[in-house]
Write a structure and sequence with these properties.
- By secondary structure, the protein is an alpha/beta fold.
- The protein has one domain (9-325).
- Helix content is 40%, strand content 14%.
- It has helices at residues 9-35, 39-52, 64-67, 70-78, 107-113, 120-123, 143-149, 157-164, 179-183, 200-208, 234-246, 290-311, and strands at residues 81-85, 95-100, 128-133, 152-154, 171-176, 192-193, 211-218, 225-226, 253-254, 272-276, 324-325.
- It has a seven-stranded mixed β-sheet, sandwiched between helices.
- Helix 1 crosses helix 4.
- The model is unreliable at 1-20 (pLDDT under 50).
Length: 326
Amino acid sequence: MACLHLFPHGPWRRLLSLAHLTAQVCIGIIVILIIYNFWFLYVPYMTWLYFDWSTPEQGGRRSNWVRSWTVWKYFKDYFPIHLIKTWDLDPSHNYVFGFHPHGVLVAGAFGNFCTNYSDFEELFPGFTAYLHVLPFWFCCPLFREYLMSSGSVSVSKKSVSHVLSKEEGGNISIIVLGGAEESLDAHPGKFTLFIRQRKGFVKIALTHGASLVPVFSFGENELFKQVNNPEGSWLRIVQEKLQKIMGFALPLFHARGIFQYNFGLMPYRKPIHTVVGRPIPVHQTLHPSPEQIEELHQTYMEELRKLFEAHKRKYGIPEHETLIFK
């Protein structure tokens, strides 16, 4: 997102619109077309939508034009966002990137894997990255087209399997494993990851023989402050109930304003360093047993912890801080 001291206000305001209002605007457009009976616009689109419904589970429909919008350069430079590679990957294989933590905005995942302004192509030549997001967002007419154009696809089992089924390799599935539940613990200085019960990604990696790669995005939890919501508090109980009903969480967050630093919804300018760890080789097992899944899951958590410990001092995290797995 744009830095107000380095970039004009216009691009920043356009980005706010894109990031926070696009879905509502798209729904509003459809409602207006229906109310004013512009059937010659919404009927063809709805008909096409019916036949195109499965596209988010079949690799999506990315657009280099959308991924190259100048506003995404402002987005990357605002924090700024950095991508760090620690290990070479083989483009003849497919990989699953486990992205941590979720944070409030998931800025590191979007900035690094959904725009053409990151160093992804330079660091990982021969690869195509797919960021998996909640299927809910692809139910919104028009907005789904914008979302797919960035390279985002559904996080359903069918969608992940489609990406990892590429025989010649070169595909990367990026899955934000903590999901909506983890966003409720996205407080500055906290490193709580919801991963102990997240084992579906391990099973699908085994099924396809896709190597697992832990990814930790340092600074992701520093972008916003949340209203205090410890487990057991009335606010946390309400948030968890809403999350179970709607499928996504509603963290009560705040940061800075556009023209002042005291209060607002604009994220703080905190650098994000998304570190891609060492791949964990996975032998293809079409019908993995619970024991095999558990063993690989434990290995993944160990590698994730090693990645965090190896790099935390570089990004200002005190020595005594460590990951908390839930």
